[in-house]
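User: Earlier you gave me the apo prediction for this protein. Now I'd like the version with flavin mononucleotide bound, so I can compare the two side by side. Same sequence as before, with the ligand SMILES added.
Assistant: Got it. Here's the input I'm using:
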Amino acid sequence: MIQQVLVDSLIKRRSIRKFLDKSVERELVLKILDIARWAPSAKNAQPWSFVIVFDRETLSRLASLSPSTEPLRNAPVAVAVIGDPIKAPLTYMIDCAVVTTYILLAAYAYGLGSVWINALRYQSAVKEILEVPEQLVPISIVALGWPAETPIPPPRRELLELIYWEKYGRRKYTQKD
Ligand SMILES: Cc1cc2nc3c(=O)[nH]c(=O)nc-3n(C[C@H](O)[C@H](O)[C@H](O)COP(=O)(O)O)c2cc1C
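And here is the structure of the complex with flavin mononucleotide:
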C-alpha cells in the first residue's frame, strides 16, 4: 500500500519565507522536534541538539547576518540545529542535515511553513548569538511560522539527467528484466 499522504508531502513541501503575524505554540514546536528526533543517523549517534528561539531580538540579530538569513526576521520562532563533531566526527553534518529535513517535513505535516537557513556560513556569529559551546557546530536554523505565501515550486533537474544504470556514466538501461 502506498502512503500517498507522505508521497504528496515530500513533493508539495516548499520553503516558506513569509509568515503570518500569528504565534506558534511552544507545544507545537516540541511536537515537531519529538517527531524529528526519529531521523536516522550514522550508528544512531544522534549528534544533534536544538535551540528553540522565540525571542524577537535574537531572531532579528540572526536575520541581520545576511540576506539569506532574512526570513528569520518575520518568523515567530526558529530552531537551530547544533551538531556535535565529537559524537560523530565523520557524519555529524550529514546527520544534522537529515534531522533538519525531518523538521521541515514534520512542520509541513502540521500546516506550518518553514525554511532551512544555512548556519554554517555564519558559524561564529551564530555561536556567539546563541551561546553555543566552542566544540559544537551550528548547522542550520529552521525558520517556522504559519505560511503567508504559496511559492511556485522551484524547478528540479530532470530525472533522466540524474540517473545512470549500474555504472556511473551509463545512461542506457541494458539489463534483461
Ligand atoms: C543546505 C540548505 C541550505 C539552505 N540555505 C538557505 C538559506 O540560507 N536561506 C534561504 O532562504 N533558503 C535556504 N535554503 C532553502 C533552499 O533555497 C530551497 O530549499 C530550494 O530553493 C528549493 O526550494 P523548496 O525548498 O521550496 O523546494 C537552503 C536549503 C538547503 C537544503
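For your comparison, keep in mind: Residues 4 and 137 are 36 Å apart (CA to CA).
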